[in-house]
Amino acid sequence: MKALKRIISAAVFAIMSVTMTLAQDAEDELYEYITVDGNGVSETKDAGKEQSDTKSSDKKAEKNKDGLSFEISKELKTALKKPGKNSEQILELTFNLTEAQKQELYDVFSKTKGTAIGMNWLPGFGSGSFVQGDVLGGSLGVTFDTIALVSEAGGLCVGFVGILVAAFSGGMAEEQIDELFGWAAGLMIGGGVLWIGNKIFGTIRPINFAKNYNKDLKAALGLEEKVESVSFLPIVDPVTSNYGLATQIRF
Q1: 121 Cβ neighbours under 8 A, 6+ residues apart
Q2: pLDDT above 70 as % of the chain
Q3: What distance in Å separates the CA atoms of residue 83 and residue 89, rounded to the nearest whole number?
Q4: Beta carbons of 204 and 196 less than 8 angstroms apart
Q5: ∠ at Cα 214 (209, 219), nearest 5°?
Q6: Under a CB-based contact definition with an 8 Å cutoff, are residues 184 and 159 in contact?
Q7: What is the pTM of this model?
Q8: DSSP calls for 198-210
Q9: Residue 132, class by beta-carbon neighbours within 10 Å (0-12 exposed, 13-18 middle, 19+ buried)?
Q10: What are 35-81's pLDDT values in tens digits?
């Protein structure tokens, strides 16, 4: 029994010795770290802060107010509104950009059609085309929707007048009352047809506008797909009776 107690005591003493040794080593390393680095702890905190600041600046660099990771001039922004008309100017202003930056510029400024189509339906009045940047399409949309709305309202008013006349004016001829209702029906039907036609226009117009704009933008940025082709052309010289084959490679 005494021998067992001695063994247990020796084991406990050994464990305590090892623990104290490890703790001392850790303390020495910490002291060495602080001694060698001077402000080791503060430097570690500063490094973390710098890392946080770096991440924050990276996020800002990834996306500025224009949605780009790099800055562009106001002149270029203005030119990008009409890439077909300003293609030479855009090509000149983006000459120093890399292919990746040009692609990013295309991704940010290219037009989408889904939102424009939805807004041309509700609230309507060409709002989707205006948001898309299509002034002509938006102007036509607001004009047609306004005419349709006025026509519908006019038809309702004429119809309401016809009902009042039919109810309270016994001396008015039946033909005149029918004429009022005819005008009311014509105005309402015409307004409805114009409204439906404008919605069809408001669906097709953004698709064509986005397609043409994106095509012009891609061409202005020099991002058009390169066509690789190989063509052969026979050459015949009847004077010397020589024959040959010319090869043309485009890439």
Answers
A1: 128, 199, 202, 203
A2: 62
A3: 9
A4: no
A5: 130
A6: yes
A7: 0.61
A8: HHHHHHHHHHHHH
A9: buried
A10: 334 333 333 334 444 454 554 444 445 677 878 888 899 999 999 99
